[in-house]
Specification:
CATH architecture of the largest domain: 2-Layer Sandwich
Strand content: 25-35%
Radius of gyration: 37 Å
Largest sheet: 6 strands, mixed
Strand order of the largest sheet: 3-4-2-1-5-6
Shape: elongated
CATH class of the largest domain: Alpha Beta
Number of domains: 4
Distance between the termini: 111 Å
Structural class: alpha+beta
Number of helices: 11
Length: about 550
C-alpha cells in the first residue's frame, strides 16, 4: 500500500509520448488538407491556392494562403501549443496539433522571411530542425510529399474538391477555381442558434456515412436527431434529418486530435434538444403531418404544441404475396369508420375470407368503411375513438367439423365483434361463401377449405382466390425457386378446386393435363402426336403422325 497520501499529483506529458506522434493522425491527404485549410482560415487568409506536382521523382502537394503567416516558428513543433491569437482561441479552442498530421511524411514550411524542412524525426523530438532565411512571402506555404497510391491526378482532384466544397474561403487547384456550395442548400427549414445554422433535410431512410456537420469545411458524420415517418403514408421509408453549419460557436468542442466527432458535454446535449425543437417547429409550419403519437408527445414535452396527425388511413384490402398488387389508397376517416385490429402479419388467408363475406350484397357489413390499423397512432383522440373489429370467428354448418378433408357445406357463418370507446360491444353475423381453416403459422398444405353451397366460384376463380390468399413463396436460401414453389402450389390448388366443385376424377384429369402441358408438350415434334395410357402399375406411349 502507498503510505504517503499527503502529497499532491499533477498531470504532465511524458517525453516518450512524442515517439507516438506519427500515430496521432491517419496521415491521409484528406486529413492533411482539412488541418491545413483550417489553419489558413484561422490565420485570416482570404484565399487558398493548392498546386500539385507529379512530374518529378518526388511528387508533392503545396498549400499556400495569404493570411498573417506564422509569427513564431519555435511553436511549430510544440505539441499542444497553438500560438493562435486570443480571439481564435476563444472561438474554436484549437488544439495545437494540426501540423502533426504531417509527422509521417515531413514537409517544407515557408512563412514571412524564413523556411524549415521538417522530417519525421523532427516531429518526434529526436533531432532539431534548422531554420533558414528566404525571400519574404505573404501568408504560409507548406509543401509535402505524396505517397505512390495518391499520385493519380483524378484521385487527388476529387480529394481536394471534396475538402474545399463547403470551405468558407475560395480555393484554387493548379490555378483553377474550385466549385463551392452551401452546406444547407437542400434544407427545407433553417434556424440559427448560438452561432450554428440548424437545417432540416429530407432524406432517404438509413443513409450510410451521412455527413451531418460542417465545421468550416471539415465534414463530421455525427449522430444527430432525426424523425422517421414511414409506415402509413410513404411508399418508401423517409425521414427528416438535421444538418449543422458551424458559423461561430465557441461552446462547440471537437474530440481531439482527429476532430471527427463532437465532445458530448452539457452543451452538446443542449444542442441535441434544440435540434429536436427545430424539427418540430418546421413540422408545425406544414399543413398536416403524419408523426406517430410518441413523436407528437415528445414535441409537447419540448414545448412545441402540434395538432394531431392527419386523420387519414389506408383503406382495408387483403394482402397478397405480390406487393405490387396491394392497394395503398388513403382516405379520411369519419365517426362511422371501422378499424380492423385482428389480423396478424401472417394471416392473409383470413383477410381474403373476410373480404368475401363483406362483399356479399345481403351482408350487414357491406356498407362498412373499413381501414387498416396503424398502431403508431394509438393515443391520438380521433384514432382511439374509432370503431374497431376485435374478433372474427367462422362456423361451418357441418355436424362433424373434425378431420382434414376439404368440404362443401350448406352454410358458413362469420361472427364479428365491433367495439368502441364508451360503448357496449356489438356482435354481427354474416354469411360467407368460403373459409380456409388454418392454425396460426401452419403450412398451406395443412389448411382445410370450407365452401358454402351458394359460393359463386368456378374452378378457375377458386384457384385464383387460393393463390391470392394462400401463396407465400419462401425466401430462405435453401428454398426452391419462385417458379417451382408457385408450380407446386398451383398443382395443389387445382386438384383441390376441381375435387370440391366438379369431382375427384375431374381433378385427376386436370392434373394429368397440367403435367403433360408443362413437362411434355414442349418436347413433341411439330407433326407428331403421343397417345399415352397411364394406370397405377404402368405407362405406355404410342407415337404417330398428325392426320
Amino acid at each position: 500500500m502507498y503510505k504517503d497520501t499527503n502529497k499532491t499529483i499533477h498531470a504532465h506529458v511524458d517525453a516518450k509520448a512524442l515517439d507516438k506522434v506519427t500515430r496521432f493522425f491517419n496521415a491521409t491527404v484528406s486529413d492533411i488538407l482539412n488541418e491545413l485549410l483550417q489553419n489558413a482560415r484561422r490565420a485570416n487568409a482570404t484565399a487558398v491556392h493548392i498546386t500539385t506536382d507529379v512530374s518529378g521523382d518526388t511528387p508533392t502537394m503545396t498549400i499556400a494562403d495569404n493570411g498573417d503567416g506564422i509569427h513564431n516558428p519555435q511553436q511549430l513543433l510544440s505539441l499542444g501549443c497553438s500560438g493562435w491569437e486570443r480571439g481564435v482561441q476563444c472561438r474554436e479552442d484549437p488544439a495545437g496539433m494540426g501540423l502533426f498530421s504531417l509527422a509521417n511524411r515531413g514537409a517544407l514550411i515557408e512563412s514571412k522571411d524564413w523556411k524549415v524542412a521538417l522530417h519525421p524525426d523532427h516531429f518526434s523530438g529526436k533531432v532539431g530542425a534548422q531554420l533558414h532565411s528566404t525571400t519574404s512571402i505573404q501568408g504560409t506555404r507548406i509543401t509535402f510529399p505524396l505517397l505512390e497510391q495518391e499520385q493519380g491526378l483524378s484521385t487527388l482532384s476529387d480529394l481536394i474538391e471534396a475538402a474545399s466544397y463547403y470551405y468558407p474561403l475560395p480555393v484554387t487547384l493548379n490555378e483553377r477555381q474550385l466549385e463551392q456550395g452551401d452546406f444547407l442548400t437542400k434544407a427545407v427549414y433553417v434556424e440559427e442558434w448560438n452561432g450554428i445554422r440548424i437545417g432540416v433535410i429530407p432524406s432517404h431512410y438509413n443513409r450510410v456515412g451521412y455527413q451531418s456537420i460542417n465545421f468550416h469545411g471539415l465534414l463530421i458524420p455525427q449522430s444527430l436527431p432525426k424523425i422517421m415517418h414511414f409506415d402509413c403514408f410513404q411508399s418508401s421509408n423517409c425521414e427528416w434529418r438535421i444538418r449543422l453549419d458551424i458559423v461561430n460557436c465557441p461552446n462547440l468542442k471537437l474530440v481531439l486530435p482527429a476532430r471527427k466527432e463532437l465532445v458530448q458535454d452539457s452543451f452538446f446535449h443542449s444542442l441535441v434538444k434544440e435540434c429536436q425543437r427545430v424539427m418540430f417547429r418546421y413540422i408545425k409550419t406544414l399543413n398536416s403531418h403524419t408523426l406517430n403519437f410518441k413523436q407528437w408527445s415528445e414535441a409537447r414535452t419540448l414545448g412545441i404544441d402540434l395538432p394531431e396527425a392527419v386523420s387519414e388511413l389506408h383503406i382495408f384490402r387483403p394482402r397478397t404475396h405480390d406487393e405490387s398488387l396491394s392497394d395503398t389508397t388513403i382516405e379520411s376517416v369519419s365517426t362511422d369508420s371501422v378499424l380492423l385490429t385482428v389480423f396478424n402479419d401472417e394471416d392473409t388467408v383470413t383477410e381474403h375470407c373476410f373480404q368475401q363475406a363483406i362483399e356479399q350484397k345481403d351482408s350487414p357489413l357491406h356498407t362498412l368503411k373499413l381501414f387498416q390499423q396503424y398502431g403508431r397512432y394509438e393515443g391520438y383522440r380521433w384514432y382511439d375513438r374509432l370503431k374497431r373489429i376485435t374478433s372474427i370467428n367462422f362456423t361451418p354448418s357441418a355436424e362433424d367439423t373434425s378431420g382434414y378433408a376439404d368440404a362443401l357445406v350448406d352454410r358458413i357463418d362469420m361472427d364479428i365483434s365491433i367495439e368502441q370507446q364508451g360503448a357496449k360491444p356489438v356482435n354481427v353475423t354474416s354469411k360467407t361463401p368460403i373459409w380456409i381453416e388454418s392454425e396460426f403459422y401452419c403450412d398451406w398444405w395443412d389448411t382445410r377449405i370450407w365452401l358454402a353451397k351458394e359460393h359463386g366460384f368456378t374452378p378457375e376463380s377458386l384457384i385464383d382466390f387460393l393463390e391470392c390468399s394462400g401463396f407465400h413463396p419462401s425466401e430462405d436460401w435453401n428454398a426452391d425457386s419462385y417458379e417451382t414453389q408457385r408450380e407446386m402450389f398451383l398443382t395443389n390448388a387445382t386438384e383441390r378446386a376441381f375435387s370440391l366443385l366438379v369431382s375427384k376424377e375431374a381433378a385427376l384429369r386436370e392434373r394429368i393435363i397440367q403435367t403433360a402441358s408443362e413437362h411434355l408438350r414442349w418436347s413433341m415434334p411439330t407433326h407428331s402426336v403421343a397417345l399415352i395410357r397411364v394406370s397405377n402399375d404402368s405407362v405406355t406411349v404410342k407415337l404417330c403422325h398428325k392426320s
